[in-house]
Amino acid sequence: MTTFEVVAEGLGKRYGPARALDMFDLAVPTGAVYGLLGPNGAGKTTAVRILATLLRFDTGRATVAGFDVLRQPSEVRARIGLTGQYAAVDETLSGRQNLELFGRLFRLGRREARQRAGDLLERFGLDEAASRSAGEYSGGMRRRLDLAASLIRTPRVLFLDEPTTGLDPRSRNQVWDLVRALVAEGTTVLLTTQYLEEADQLANRISVIDAGRVVAEGSPDELKSMTGGDRIEVVVRDPADLAEAARIVAPISGAEPVIEPEVRRLSVPVVDRVAVLVDVVRALDDAAIAVEDVGLRRATLDEAFLHLTGHRPDHAREQAGAGRQAAVA
């Protein structure tokens, strides 16, 4: 029987006339990484702030670790950790001093706070930099220190609100490894992100949120299948063969291929992927159509996001814009 550590039903939140959340539903299974995926302004951070008892909602209900967010906020806070989009560490203090301070704020004794800080510094690979001020840390180190601070008391539920924003790939991978280790030890993680790869790598299940409402929910593979699932792509040597190749492939696949003449390619959705691929290759060979490339391709989470929301995530648009600027320059 599946149990749920985080449940939200019909949450609504307004800022004046604007709706930040609109009948928002969520059910996060115990011991999982659950991804909340959406563009900037979709309502991800609002949802996290409500579930972490930092913001009151207007309608609906929510429970975290079995406690009502509205009526039992102290019980909820005692069982959660939270890491926001930006590292909330004191840059004038050393890494060790930061963690000891958090320990004292969580009412640990001086000796226990010192011991816990040491354990976390070692675990997060910061022990050699423990005496340096946090202001001297790299972005990845500050993020790891911030994550360590949220674990001063081992939480049942950890909220990570876009935890790798602005990090380089190496630092992002380090944070991913830490998240996986926490889940292996029993912590439930609710992760908000606009990085599709991050959701794909970490999350067992994902809710796609747009304009304050969940527009789709499922595993990464289930979301990808909403775009049409697997596809066979064929690149022919001679563009004149495209129409004939499409005529051959259509009855085998059971669908009408999409032809892209500028790249001499056709693609078609398939269900029985391997069997259809073998039949397509054999039929094209029998028809003496020269093929430069043929293969199976799975839909990406990027394509699923575009299909579900009608636009790409913000970071993808930023990367595309940077590429265009570089081309112009």
UniProtKB/TrEMBL annotation:
Bilayer disposition of the protein: Peripheral membrane protein
GO MF entries: ATP binding
UniProt keywords, alphabetically: Antibiotic resistance, ATP-binding, Cell membrane, Membrane, Nucleotide-binding, Translocase, Transport
Keyword Cell membrane: yes
Organism domain of life: Bacteria
Signal sequence annotation: none
UniProt domain ABC transporter: residue ranges: 6-236
SMART domains noted in UniProt: AAA
Cellular compartment(s): Cell membrane
InterPro entries per the UniProt record, alphabetical: AAA+_ATPase, ABC_transporter-like_ATP-bd, ABC_transporter-like_CS, ABC_transporter_ATP-binding, DrrA, P-loop_NTPase
This protein's record includes keyword Chloroplast: no
PANTHER family linked: ABC TRANSPORTER ATP-BINDING PROTEIN, DOXORUBICIN RESISTANCE ATP-BINDING PROTEIN DRRA
Family: Belongs to the ABC transporter superfamily. Drug exporter-1 (DrugE1) (TC 3.A.1.105) family.
NCBIfam families named among the record's database cross-references: drrA
Protein name according to UniProt: ATP-binding cassette domain-containing protein
Organism from which the protein derives: Micromonospora tarensis
